[in-house]
Design a protein that fits this description.
Protein name: Clp amino terminal domain-containing protein, pathogenicity island component
Largest sheet: none
Order of helices and strands: HHHHHHHHHHHHHHHHHHHHHHHHHHHHH
Number of domains: 6
Radius of gyration: 32 Å
Shape: flat
Organism: Streptomyces aidingensis
Low-confidence stretches: 152-160, 262-287
Mean pLDDT: 76
Structural class: mainly alpha
Number of helices: 29
Number of strands: 0
Helix content: 55-70%
Strand content: under 5%
Distance between the termini: 46 Å
C-alpha cells in the first residue's frame, strides 16, 4: 500500500517532488531515475550512439563519437534493452520492441503511472505517443494497467475508486474532447476532479489548462474557515491539498491577513489621513499621502533623483515610490549605470568579435541580460550569426585534418561533442573514419610482462601509447589474473 507523500501536490512523482520532501515510492523512483541519468549517458548521447550502431559502426567508434569509453556503453545497456539489442546486432525492429518492453517493465515498477514510467525510460511525450501508435502496444499497456489494478484491488481494499480498464478507455475519450471540463469528467466517472487530474498524469495524457480560479472558488469557503480557526499556512495547505504558495496567493486575493502577521494597512487618501488625525485613530503609515506627495514626487523624478532618496524624503518605501510613479504614468527610470556614454561604449565593445557578452558586462558593470537588452534597444546586429559563421569555417578546416580527434576539435572550439556533431551535419561534412584500434598482437608480449611486473593500468597505457580503457579491455580479453 502506497504511503502518504509529504509532497501531495502536482510535484509528486517527479524529481522536484523528492527535492521538496516527498518520500513516497513515486518520488523515490523519479529521483533514482534522475540520478541514474546523470551518471550514465545523456539522452542526446544515447540517440547518437543508436544512430551510429544502426548505420553499421562498431561499438568502439560509436563510443568515441560521443566521447565515452566503450565500457560505458555496456554498463548503460545493462538497464537499457534497446541499446543492448543494438550492441548485440539485432535488427532495428527488435531494438524497438525491446524499447516497448522497457516501458512496460517500468509501468510495473511505477504502479501503472505512465508519465513516471516514461520519465524512467527517457521517453518524451511525443515519443510515448509514437510508441503507443505501434501495433499491439496500446493493448499491452492496457493489459498491464488492468493487471496492476487487479493487484491493487486485492492488496488495497481501502481504495474507493480504482482506475479500471473500462475507465481508462472512457477517460481517454472524454479527455480528448476539450468541450468537456474536468469536473464533468469526474462526475461521469464518479471521481473528484483531483482524482481525474491524477489519472491523467498517470496515463501520460496531454496537458490541459485548468480553468482559472476553479480550485480557488471550490476552496474559498474552507479557506476562510481555517483562517478563522487560526491555522498556519502549512496546515491550511495540507488541508486543502495545495502548496503553501497557493494558500498565500489565495489569502492575498480575498484581502485577508496572513496568520501571525499584523493586518495590512491600505494606502490612505489625504481626507482619510486628516480624518484619522482628528479622531485620534491609529496611524501605522507616515502622514505623507499620495495626494500630498505627488507634486514633490514629480519634481524629484524629473531631477533624476534616486528612488531610494525619493523614498527617504517622502517617508515611504522604494516599492511605494515605484507604485506611485506607475499610477502617475511617470516615464520609466534608467539605472545609474545606464547613460549615453555607457551605451556608446557598448557599441564599440559589441563590434569587437573577440569580446564576449560576459566580458562586456564586466567592463560596463552591468549584467549579461542588460547587455543583450541594451543591444536590442540600440539596434545592434546579432553577434551570434557572425560568430557562428566563423565557427563553421573552423569546423570545416579542422574536420579535414584526419589526425585531429573529434574530442580535440570540440575542446579547441569550446563546444560540447553533440554541438560539434550538429555543426558537422549542418555543413554536410563526410563522416570521420573510425580510428583504428591498436592491435593486441603487437603489444601482447609487452603487456603480459608489464602486468606480471605489477605495473598499474595508467603506467602500462603510457608505456604502450594507448588509453587506459584499451588496456583494461586487453586485460579482460587475455584473461590476465586480477589484482
Amino acid at each position: 500500500m502506497i504511503k502518504h507523500c509529504a509532497e501531495a501536490g502536482r510535484f509528486c512523482g517527479t524529481p522536484s517532488g523528492w527535492r521538496r520532501g516527498g518520500r513516497c515510492p513515486r518520488c523515490r523512483t523519479a529521483h533514482n531515475a534522475e540520478t541514474g541519468r546523470y551518471r550514465g549517458m545523456t539522452l542526446e548521447q544515447r540517440r547518437t550512439v543508436l544512430d551510429a550502431l544502426r548505420a553499421g559502426s562498431r561499438p568502439e567508434a560509436a563510443a568515441d563519437g560521443v566521447g565515452l569509453p566503450v565500457a560505458r556503453l555496456g554498463a548503460q545497456a545493462s538497464r537499457d534493452g534497446e541499446l543492448r539489442a543494438a550492441l548485440d546486432g539485432y535488427p532495428e525492429e527488435v531494438q524497438q520492441a525491446a524499447r516497448v518492453g522497457d516501458y512496460l517493465a517500468a509501468l510495473t515498477r511505477t504502479a501503472g503511472d505512465a508519465g513516471l514510467a516514461a520519465y524512467v525510460c527517457g521517453l518524451s511525450d511525443s515519443e510515448l505517443e509514437d510508441l503507443r501508435g505501434r501495433p499491439g502496444v496500446a493493448q499491452a499497456e492496457a493489459a498491464v494497467v488492468a493487471l496492476l489494478t487487479g493487484a491493487a484491488r486485492e492488496t488495497s481494499p481501502s481504495w474507493k475508486i480504482l482506475l479500471t480498464a473500462d475507465r481508462v478507455a472512457q477517460l481517454r475519450e472524454l479527455w480528448a474532447d476539450r468541450s468537456i471540463t474536468v469536473l464533468e469528467i469526474g462526475k461521469t466517472l464518479g471521481a473528484s476532479d483531483n482524482t481525474v487530474w491524477q489519472w491523467a498524469r498517470q496515463l501520460g495524457l496531454p496537458p490541459r489548462a485548468k480553468p482559472p480560479g476553479a480550485r480557488f472558488a471550490e476552496s474559498r469557503e474552507r479557506l476562510e474557515e481555517l483562517l478563522e480557526e487560526g491555522r498556519s499556512v502549512t496546515e491550511m495547505a495540507r488541508e486543502l491539498g495545495v502548496s503553501d504558495q497557493s494558500v498565500l496567493n489565495w489569502i492575498e486575493r480575498i484581502g485577508a491577513t496572513r496568520p501571525g502577521r499584523a493586518p495590512r494597512q491600505q494606502p490612505v487618501t489625504e481626507g482619510e489621513a486628516q480624518q484619522a488625525g482628528e479622531l485620534g485613530g491609529p496611524r501605522s503609515r507616515p502622514a505623507t499621502t499620495l495626494d500630498q506627495a505627488m507634486p514633490r514626487l514629480r519634481e524629484l523624478w524629473a531631477d533624476g533623483a534616486r528612488v531610494r532618496d525619493i523614498a527617504a524624503e517622502l517617508g515611504v518605501t522604494p516599492v511605494t515610490v515605484h507604485r506611485w510613479a506607475a499610477k502617475a504614468e511617470l516615464p520609466p527610470r534608467r539605472s545609474g549605470r545606464d547613460s549615453a556614454d555607457a551605451r556608446r561604449r557598448l557599441g564599440e565593445l559589441w563590434a569587437d568579435p573577440d569580446r564576449s557578452p560576459t566580458s562586456i558586462a564586466e567592463e560596463l558593470g552591468i549584467s549579461r541580460v542588460t547587455v543583450h537588452k541594451w543591444a536590442q534597444e540600440e539596434g545592434l546586429p546579432p553577434r551570434q550569426a557572425a560568430r557562428r559563421a566563423d565557427q563553421l569555417d573552423k569546423v570545416a578546416e579542422m574536420w579535414a585534418d584526419q589526425e585531429r580527434t573529434v574530442r580535440s576539435i570540440a575542446a579547441e572550439l569550446g563546444v560540447a561533442l553533440p554541438t560539434l556533431r550538429r555543426r558537422v551535419a549542418e555543413l554536410g561534412l563526410p563522416p570521420r573514419r573510425a580510428r583504428r584500434m591498436p592491435k593486441l598482437e603487437q603489444s601482447e608480449a609487452r603487456l603480459r610482462a608489464l602486468w606480471a611486473d605489477g605495473r598499474g593500468i595508467a603506467e602500462i597505457a603510457e608505456e604502450l601509447g594507448v588509453t587506459r580503457e584499451t588496456v583494461t579491455m586487453w586485460v579482460l580479453r587475455l584473461g590476465l589474473p586480477t589484482r
